[in-house]
Design a protein that fits this description.
With about 450 residues, the protein is an alpha/beta fold. It has helices at about 45-55, 75-85, 110-115, 125-130, 150-160, 190-200, 215-230, 260-275, 290-295, 335-340, 360-370, 400-410, 420-425, 430-435; strands at about 30, 40, 65, 90-95, 95-100, 110, 135, 160-165, 170-175, 185, 205-210, 230-235, 240-245, 250-255, 275-280, 300-305, 305-310, 320-325, 350, 370-375, 380-385, 390-395, 415-420, 440-445. It binds ligand EPZ.
Amino acid sequence: MESLFPDFKLGKSATTIAPQVKSSSLDKIKIIGGNPLNGTIPISGAKNCALKLMCAALLTEESVYFENSPNTLRDMNSQIELLEYLGCAIKCEGSLMAINASAIETYTAPYDIVRKMRGSILVLGPLLTRFGQAKVSLPGGCAIGTRPVDLHIKGLEEMGATITLDDGYINATAPAGGLQGAKILFPKVSVGATENLLMAATLAKGETVLVNAAKEPEIIDLGECLIKMGAKITGLGTETIRIEGVKSLKGVRHSIVPDRIETGTYIIAAGMTGGTLRLQNARIEHLSAALGFLSQAGIEVEQDKNDIIVSREVERLQGVDIMTEPYPGFPTDLQAQFMAMLTLADGAGMVTETIFENRFMHVPELSRMGADISVQGNSAIVRGVKSLKGAEVMATDLRASVALVLAGLVAEGETTVNRIYHLERGYEDIVGKLGGVGANISRVSGE
Ligand code: EPZ
């Protein structure tokens, strides 16, 4: 395998399986609340970018190298499992990942792997555009909503693909000469559909125009990596992305954008606990909508070169209303954490979720800790209480789980967050990072 990755110095530690992911998914986190957080937390590369970049590796037979890759996340391991199943060679060392897709053996992404993580639907566009065929299991619903993939399918059909749905699989075939460039108008903004069509268009014939495209920083980063691989793309970060198809793409070395949701989560942790945190390698400009609301609540954030420094300006944070929206609006992936923060604020705040229909799973669990929250449809009114009480809690979604960790950091007494599995999907070494800045947090065996 070394010959596939000539500029990758494989040491003894090179592995595709991250050590902490080998542990039991039943493990729990125990937190004794009350410690302010002070110190430095390194921010990892963005999960929701890394997962897509890994799919972009399928677009070329040359090796690609990703730096600042959050290799220890469970979701990354699910994506590795899928790409290896397809025939990719993959090596990880520290935060470097190398992928070579020169010997793809199958174009089928099976249900058993896809069901673990919806991000695997992103292999559809790359496989179809490079090999002319793809069979990908429908990911199905998930805890936060039904999450259809109709926009991905419709866009590929507009590029000339023939798609049938058989036995829970998307069966896609490109026309004889390959996918054709097309003007694709998304009726609603979708991160995943924009990414799938962006990747498919890089190797299509002629020009593709994506109208009402998503503008997330992770999509810009994916697009910039594709450009380095030889793709012709303009308009990244705007509503209209234009892609002029090329014959082939080449290998690349690319450093993944910092995770803005991990950053936002630790900003809220600093605000809630009242300490001062330096978040290393974080980009303030990717959180501008959220920062406006956090500043209204009383959290001060400033950029210091590549770091962000966060502190609480006031004795008690203030209640603020938020509504989730596609980027650059307030991110749905920070909604649960913001709600955890509001539970202890002075006054009330209203949280309106407009992206996913079922993203309030944290509400009953926060209520068990003493929060005062009432939900009406897609809005929740959070009336700040004086204190939260530690409890045994569990959530079935990544961001809901981390919101419970945040609540545990400030609750009186002990909080046990069950099913650490969800946290490990999206937060690298959360126990080590929070413990390193003063939190009384530990991982205990769930066996
Ligand atoms: C991505 O999901 C993220 N996942 C999500 O992060 C994030 O919450 C979401 O974007 C919104 O920012 C990854 O990047 C792996 P969408 P995605 O397509 O691409 C509807 C986390 O916690 N829709 O923008 O699936 C859909 O049901 C995760 O890290 C259709 O109707 O989100 C939703 O209501 C959770 N048809 C809305 O659009 C489609 O074909 C936005 O979804 C596609 C989407």
